[in-house]
Specification:
Layout: H1 3-14, E1 21-22, H2 23-29, H3 36-50, E2 57-58, H4 72-81, H5 94-97, H6 101-106
Helix pairs in contact: 1-3, 2-3
């Protein structure tokens, strides 16, 4: 497993209940801001093996990436159970639920 993949897994595991991160913010925090699609692939292939909280990873616009029939509804249910506000249109309140601690730790408090 390469270093980027290890960092992505670690970051996803550290997202606390009630918070979300975006594919792009995880990629940036892991050292490659242009690798959001790679984060998606890692999440898809490693969730079961590493028990990743996949439901806490969303699109940069605050929306759920998965279609309803492919897990989107389950993601909304899981997030709502953790106290994440999901609007009727399926968007998360990013000002309230976006987790930035990982950025602060990885970037020496920037």
């Amino acid at each position: 497993m390469n270093d980027f993949t290890k960092r992505v897994i670690d970051i996803i595991k550290r997202i606390p209940p009630g918070y979300v991160m975006t594919y792009g913010s995880i990629a940036e925090c892991a050292g490659n801001p242009r690798a959001s699609r790679q984060v998606s692939r890692i999440l898809h292939s490693m969730t079961a093996k590493y028990d990743l909280p996949w439901h806490r990873v969303i699109r940069k616009d605050g929306s759920i990436a998965l279609p309803n029939e492919a897990g989107g509804l389950e993601q909304i249910v899981l997030l709502t159970a953790e106290g994440v506000e999901v609007s009727v249109s399926g968007k998360i309140n990013m000002q309230r639920h976006f987790w930035v601690e990982a950025f602060l730790e990885e970037n020496d408090g920037l």
